[in-house]
Amino acid sequence: MTDLSNLDRAEVETFLAGLGVPRFHGRQIFHWIYRRGVTDFAAMTDLPRALRERLAAACTLTTPRLETRQTSTDGTTKFLLRLEDHRHIEAVYIPDTPAQTFCISTQVGCAMACTFCLTGKMGLTRHLTAGEIAGQVRVLAHATGLAGQPFNVVLMGMGEPLHNYDATMKALRMLADEQGLALSPRHVTLSTVGVLPGLERLAQEPLMPNLAISLHATTDAQRDALVPVNRKYRLDDLMAACRKFPVRKRARITFEYVLLDGVNDTPEDARRLVKLLNGMKAKVNLLPLNEAPGIPFTRPSDERVNAFAQILASRDVLVSVRKSRGRDIRAACGQLIVESERRAAGQRLAAALP
Ligand code: SAH
Questions:
Q1: Contacts for 287 with CB less than 8 Å, ≥ 6 apart
Q2: CA quadruple 44, 48, 52, 53: dihedral sign
Q3: Which residue of 49, 144, 158, 181 is 20 to 30 Å from 222, comparing CA positions?
Q4: Whose CA is nearest to atom 10 of ligand 1?
Q5: Do residues 114 and 226 touch, judged by C-beta distance below 8 A?
Q6: What pLDDT does 343 receive?
Q7: pLDDT reported for residue 354
Q8: Residue 339's pLDDT is what?
Q9: With a 6 A CB cut-off, is 217 part of the ligand 1 pocket?
Q10: Any residues with CB less than 8 A from the CB of 288 and at least 6 apart, and which?
Q11: How many CB atoms lie within 10 A of CB 329?
Q12: Which of 164, 284, 109, 166 is nearest to 214 (CA)?
């Protein structure tokens, strides 16, 4: 059986050609799958009946199963999705920011182990396939009625997209297809801790999403403690890669900076951040910590957050403070974790923390 959910349109067409079927049916199939949200070949009524039957016999169309959805008081909706192997991932719909945004996952769990992130405590269970990554957008677009309307996608759910590079980029190509959801990479933001080989590959891509860097610290010592991958890819090298990164006209790299009370939120940190970003097309998105049991940090007061933001703004660094959405349903940044998943070592450790 061939799983069509994992194929881009060129591959679907090649597959059809192999069956001796005209390639143009690939366009129709893509339309049904992505734009119409149809997963049953029998329902693809503009295909010849014989083709529908052959597809049903030779293909599957794996689609994440919507298991539960929870809506926050602010309208943010978290979706629990079940994959074919019964593992779970989460994806989030964040309405009216003013855009409509889907936040999707690229892995089950995450290997990066950032010390303030709940997903990081899970460890990595496995990579998602391109079909599973794109499938989240298919499912959410149809569950929210937004297929055919403009929406943004942020790769800010579970997982590190550049640690699952090929599947992530293939999913973006599948989602960009004009016959499908036609999601332009300009409406996609890829967020990364800075896996440098991935960042260098990304700089060469013809389909270029917006880039967000999870920076969180301004010295190697500090970043080593918060974002362990920094021990491998040092801050200077990360900043050098960002300076070289081909940013579109009028676009900027977003630097995400989680604020941890008394750890990385002092005026000195803010001034070092200004220096690091000197001369770059950058903007800073401050994320006051979303606290959770097992996370050994606290959220700074609004005064401290504002003071930090003020220092950046007064030195002409564009800065915004992320208003966390969906905190009441644990849908906010760093809070995606699947409790029923078999617990990885890191997670057991996290559970043992006071
Ligand atoms: N692995 C990628 C994609 C995840 S994006 C990355 O790290 O960029 C999720 C964002 O939420 C990251 O910037 C992450 O650092 C941030 N985050 C994680 N835990 C958080 C928490 N407890 N509070 C606020 N932000 C958090």
A1: 256, 257, 258, 259, 322, 324, 333
A2: positive
A3: 158
A4: 333
A5: yes
A6: 43
A7: 41
A8: 52
A9: no
A10: 258, 259, 299, 300, 302, 305, 321, 322, 324
A11: 18
A12: 284
CA of 235 to the centre of ligand 1 (A): 17
CA of 20 to the centre of ligand 1 (A): 47
Q: Return the structure tokens found at 331.
A: 């849908």
Tell if the pTM clears 0.85, that is, is over it: yes
Residue 348: exposure state from Cβ atoms within 10 A (0-12, 13-18, ≥19): exposed
Calpha distance 47→24 (Å, rounded): 11
135 membership: H or E segment, kind and range: helix 130-143
Between CA 59 and CA 51 the distance in angstroms is 11
The Cα–Cα gap between 208 and 102 comes to 18
Q: What is the pLDDT of residue 344?
A: 41
Q: How many angstroms separate the CA atoms of 191 and 209, rounded?
A: 10
Strands (E), the chain: 2-3, 59-60, 65-71, 77-82, 88-94, 101-103, 107-109, 124-127, 152-155, 188-192, 210-214, 253-259, 282-288, 318-321
In this structure, the residue with its CA closest to atom 20 of ligand 1 is: 334
Residue range 289-324, pLDDT digits in tens: 999 999 999 999 999 999 999 999 999 999 999 887
125: which DSSP letter?
Answer: E
Tell me which residues of the chain have a pLDDT lower than 50.
340-354
Beta strands at 65-71 and 77-82: parallel, antiparallel or unpaired: antiparallel
Closest to 207 measured CA to CA, from 249, 247, 181, 173: 173
- Longest CA–CA span in the chain (Å) reads 70
Question: In the numeric block, which tokens belong to residue 77?
Answer: 């909706």
- CA 2 to centroid of ligand 1, rounded, Å: 35
Which has the closest alpha carbon to 63: 93, 43, 42, 33?
A: 33
Q: Using the 8-state DSSP alphabet, how is residue 35 labeled?
A: I
The rounded distance, in Å, linking the Cα atoms of 261 and 238 is 25
**DSSP codes, 244-263:** HS-PPTT--EEEEEEE-TTT
Q: Is the CB of 297 under 6 A from ligand 1?
A: no
Active-site amino acid positions: 90, 333
